[in-house]
Amino acid sequence: METQNLSFGLSSTLPTSPIQNQKNPFFQILLKPPSSSNILTLKGVFLKPHVSFSPKSFPSKEFFQCRNCLQRIEREAITVPDSGVSKELRKKKLAVFVSGGGSNFRSIYEATLEGTVHGEVAVLVTNKKDCGGAKYAREQGIPVIVFPKAKNSSEGLSEEDLVGSLRAYNIDFILLAGYLKLIPTELVQAFPRSIFNIHPSLLPSFGGKGYYGIKVHKAVIASGARYSGPTIHYVDEHYDTGRILAQGVVPVLANDTAETLAARVLQEEHKLYVEVAAALCEERIVWREDGVPLIQSKEDPNHYK
Fold first, then answer.
1. Which domain holds residue 58?
2. What InterPro entries does this protein's entry cite (predicted)?
């Protein structure tokens, strides 16, 4: 079978050199410096690989250099059923950002407990220390970080301290779940292609600064749009302009109010964000040649969503 390349999002500060596993000549860890673009092509799809392997064989354990924390870590075993490939994956560390009740945060957290998402919520970040999401996190024993630091308050971290704290928690992915502050450039640059946001409309429509919460649904209904739904996208330095990763579609009914539409979209948000979080933790995100990210199907690795 043809050797395939997959993206594992890992890198190292070690010099570029292949380390050949003696038990399996097909398994090769490619250690790249962080400054490298790390892009390979597989059948017209661009990937960001650090591991090249034969689908038929795996070593039992390997140690890797974590991209963010620069510490050696060991992967934990997980089998992706019906994919034709057995992967050994460590649980991913997730940081969730919230500003309100945090219903998407709860859905993701519960999915990690159930095993639907092969990861763990290591920390919650909020700009409102007493919001519902923060209270729930504390009840579950999840550390809570306040960011940004409010004026005339001793609580809260600077951009530099936030990056340092997330690296201390060995964070792999940052999931914005109703976080209403613009993500600082320092954080975007520190976690490239690792920060995601969910927006309650079908971007690029009804997105950007000022479009949040119930305002989005009022604008959708006023426009006469027949469909709406959540969008999950990569985060860049601007509001709602990053590459779209996934979308869910719900109908806009003739008698909808902003509140009824919001409730229907929120149900789809809970489902979609868990699906995306699962794909991230199972390393099923690939990049098309034109720079569009795709989600590889868990059931059929030759199908992309």
1. 1-89+284-297
2. Formyl_transf_N (IPR002376), Formyl_transf_N_sf (IPR036477), GART (IPR004607), GART_AS (IPR001555)
Q: What b/e readout covers 87-107, taking b as 16+ CB neighbours within 10 angstroms? A: bbbbbbbbbbbbbbebbbbbb
What pTM was estimated for this model as a whole? 0.73
Q: What is the pLDDT of residues 55-108, one digit of tens each?
A: 333 333 343 344 444 333 344 445 554 444 455 789 999 999 999 999 999 999
78 and 165 inside one domain: no
The answer, yes or no, to whether the previous bond of 148 is cis (omega within 30 of 0) is yes
Residue 199 bears catalytic tag: yes
Residue identified by tokens 């302009």 is: 241
Q: Does residue 302 sit within a domain?
A: no
CA dihedral 245, 251, 255, 256 (to 10 degrees): -20
Count of domains forming the chain: 2
Distance CA 249, CA 23 (A): 47
Respond yes or no on whether the N-terminal peptide bond of residue 204 is cis (omega within 30° of 0).
Answer: yes
Q: Which of 199, 217, 233, 270 is catalytic?
A: 199
Residues near 107 by beta carbon (within 8 Å), at least 6 away in sequence: 270, 273, 274
Q: Are 66 and 24 in contact (CB under 8 A)?
A: no
Kindly report the backbone phi and psi dihedral angles of residue 123, in degrees, each rounded to the nearest multiple of 5, phi listed first.
-160, 150
Strand 250-251 and strand 49-53: pairing? unpaired
